[in-house]
């Protein structure tokens, strides 16, 4: 196969750091900006960090699991890396864009690969108004929180909150409630990925709410707008037969 310019990056975990030393010695090291593939060594959390760090670059990312879950990762091995990269299958995913406004008027924008979530930040349940494409759809959702998930993120927090698993090729987003009190047991909705979803926080002084985009948190929000961001694409590589589509299907038959 053709020579690949590889940039290795690793989480602080001991196993990942040890693997980094071995792989760099075997294959060399290129700066991320000059590489055509980034090999990320760690768990899913580190993979998300790597994808965010390279979100403005047209570069493939191949993860090897040195962590715990590794849903976005491939099986770890220091052998046959070039052959595995040559045979790997590419999956392209697009993140969500979040625009959050706080009680103090600050505006925070962020991208999320898995989901954007709103969570109560005090002892009382959150009260949220939900609008889709400028039309109010739910005047009052009383809950512990709500989230909007991509297909790639549908098996993460969304699934834990009893949201649906979405096929990776579907042009759909999952809107899921967490511990909905009113409407009682409201489970959420499936929305086209072209939808613009807006959450407005009712009584924010009494019922504070925080927003979270892939672990980037914004406290005391009064409104959050979310939409898919097709201008940004993440090129993730998987070993044949172990891509996201297969994993999402398999997760439903565990």
In words, what does this structure look like?
- This protein has 5 helices and 17 strands.
- It has 254 residues and is α+β, with helices and mostly antiparallel strands.
- It has 2 domains: 6-94 and 233-251, Rossmann fold (3-Layer(aba) Sandwich), CATH 3.40.50.10330; 96-228, Probable inorganic polyphosphate/atp-NAD kinase, domain 2 (Tumour Suppressor Smad4, Sandwich).
- Strands 6-5-16-13-8-9 form a 6-stranded antiparallel β-sheet, with no helix packed on it. Strands 12-11-10-7-14-15 form a 6-stranded antiparallel β-sheet, with no helix packed on it. Strands 1-2-3-17-4 form a 5-stranded mixed β-sheet, sandwiched between helices.
- A hairpin with a 4-residue loop joins strand 5 (96-102) and strand 6.
- The chain is elongated and about 60 Å long.
- The model has no long low-confidence stretch (mean pLDDT 93).
Please specify the SSE layout and strand pairing.
Layout (H helix, E strand, L loop, with lengths): L5 E5 L3 H14 L9 E6 L1 H10 L6 E6 L15 H7 L1 E5 L2 E7 L4 E6 L2 E6 L5 E7 L2 E9 L1 E5 L7 H4 L11 E7 L10 E4 L4 E5 L7 E5 L2 E3 L2 E8 L5 E5 L5 H8 L3
Parallel strand pairs: 1-2, 2-3, 3-17
Antiparallel strand pairs: 4-17, 5-6, 5-16, 7-10, 7-14, 8-9, 8-13, 10-11, 11-12, 13-16, 14-15
């Amino acid at each position: 196969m053709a020579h690949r310019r590889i940039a290795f990056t690793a989480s602080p975990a001991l196993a990942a750091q040890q693997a980094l030393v071995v792989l760099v010695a075997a294959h060399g090291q290129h700066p991320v900006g000059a590489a055509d593939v980034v090999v990320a060594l760690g768990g899913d959390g580190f993979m998300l960090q790597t994808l965010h760090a390279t979100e403005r670059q047209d570069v493939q990312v191949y993860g090897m699991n040195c962590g715990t879950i590794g849903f976005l990762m491939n099986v770890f091995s220091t052998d046959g890396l070039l052959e595995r990269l040559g045979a790997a299958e590419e999956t392209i995913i697009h993140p969500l864009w979040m625009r959050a406004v706080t009680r103090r008027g600050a505006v925070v924008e962020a991208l999320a690969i898995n989901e954007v979530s709103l969570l109560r930040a005090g002892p009382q349940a959150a009260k949220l108004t939900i609008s889709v494409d400028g039309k109010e759809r739910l005047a009052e959702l009383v809950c512990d929180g709500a989230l909007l998930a991509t297909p790639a993120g549908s098996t993460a927090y969304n699934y834990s909150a009893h949201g649906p698993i979405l096929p990776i090729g579907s042009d759909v987003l999952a809107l899921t409630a967490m511990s909905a009190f009113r409407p009682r047991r409201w489970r959420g909705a499936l929305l086209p990925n072209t939808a613009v979803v807006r959450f407005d926080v009712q009584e924010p002084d009494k019922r504070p709410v925080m927003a979270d985009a892939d672990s980037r948190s914004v406290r005391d929000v009064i409104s959050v707008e979310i939409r898919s961001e097709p201008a940004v694409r993440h090129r993730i590589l998987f070993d044949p037969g172990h891509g996201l589509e297969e994993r999402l299907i398999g997760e439903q038959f565990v």
